[in-house]
Amino acid sequence: MIFSILNKFSKIFLSFFTFFLLINSISYAETKKNLDGWENINWSEHNIKFSLPSDLKETENTVNKYVAENKNITFEMYPWKDKYLNEKDIADKVFSDLGIEQKGLKIISKNNKKINGFSCYEIVGNGTLASKPINFSVLGFINPKTSKAFATYVLYWSNGNKDKSIEIEKEIIESISSVN
């Protein structure tokens, strides 16, 4: 009789302990996401993933465009339709189309680079758009697994903290990778 009671008690205890561990592990994952402050995005239509600050609100997610923004940052990515352009031509065209004012424009860097296996061309700088100061990163890239070309840009509507905005832009751009 006493063994029967102990057996029931141990099963109840084991069930409670397992439930406690499960709840604890779920809480840890949520806490880590909140502490980290970044959200992983999988743009499955194009087999691309990237990370964005978790306070960016997705405003468009279609096969033709992905857009997320908040009061300080605008992120946009879309497949490039002209298959005859290379990554530099794409970045130059997107930069031109953004309409950043020439007065006060400062290009920090323009260069070819590899990011997570992608062939890329990146333009980084600061200037003025719609009468507001911005820091920007413009990227043209080609997915080596699919040979599809893409354009993306990050606009950081500057509040005087250029170092922080460049760091955030760099983290976003360097998070872009292909889904296996």
Summarize the topology.
Blueprint: H1 2-36, E1 38-43, E2 48-53, E3 57-61, E4 66-69, E5 73-79, H2 87-98, E6 101-115, E7 118-129, E8 132-142, E9 149-157, H3 162-175, E10 177-178
Antiparallel strand pairs: 1-2, 2-10, 3-4, 4-5, 5-9, 6-7, 7-8, 8-9
Structural notes for this entry:
- By secondary structure, the protein is α+β, with helices and mostly antiparallel strands.
- The protein has 3 helices and 10 strands.
- The protein has helices at residues 2-36, 87-98, 162-175, and strands spanning 38-43, 48-53, 57-61, 66-69, 73-79, 101-115, 118-129, 132-142, 149-157, 177-178.
- The strands form 2 sheets. The chain has a 7-stranded antiparallel sheet. Strands 1-2-10 form a 3-stranded antiparallel sheet.
- Strand 6 (101-115) and strand 7 form a beta hairpin.
- The model is unreliable at 12-35 (pLDDT under 50).
